[in-house]
Amino acid sequence: MKTASPAYPAPADAEARRGLSPVVCYDPATLPAPDLGAYRAARAGARKTAEVLAPPRDAACFEVPAGSFFRISCIDGPQVGDLNLWNAADLGERFYSGKTRALHGTHLSTGDRLWSSFPAMRPMATITDDTLDWYGIDAFGGSVHDVIGTRCDPYTHNLLTGGQYHHCCHSNLTRALADARGLPLAEAGRHVHDVLNVFMCTGFTRDTGQYFMKASPVRPGDYLEFFAEIDLVGALSACPGGDCGDEHSSDAAACHPLKIEVFTPEAAPAGWAPPAPNGYDGSHGR
Description:
By secondary structure, the chain is α+β, with helices and mostly antiparallel strands. It has one domain. It is built from six helices and 13 strands.
């Protein structure tokens, strides 16, 4: 956290240094672009093939074949969810929120993709529809669907409060994956990773640069929909913070379920094929 009372005086050219123009690190225009028109044409004829509920303060796993769609919906009251994704055939290939953030920005919406970890580093899913895309960036710098928060977890909770809380999103995701894949809790926990915070409204404070949350604008009927680029296993936790307008990692907030639906089209989108693993040769200069 940047201090308001720095220990060192500003140099004479401080304002010139601060005034240098920023450079965007990665140009998204050079990324392979999804054909949203083809995806939507395929979605129009899709039929629902699965439905799962993530209970309040708990999580659920689901599977999505490559070429299908999955939708996360608010169905009861304002609720945020923490999403993990894995390659269904290899849990070692998982959603890489940090690289997704570097490529697309701190908050995701329609047309953005969820990228996988090294060495595969390829699109796992593409966002095809977002009923909260109207929100934009508010006066506080907040927006929805972030890839900056890591997930609430019992370790940080213990560090800050000394308490033992077992329905943090990390624990919820761990239990769900353990049950779905028949894994010991310790092994499942090692596969749980940083998340897409679905429906969560977040940003950074302008004075201290601290991560903040505010009440989500999501309402029943809102949803975020994805196209599965590869065979996926997903886990979604209905966060114990509810709409995250007050606190998380407690039993105080009003919490609601989230619905996950899978839709399978009659035919794959025109011209689409599952993305191959990243083309880097892996030699690392040797």
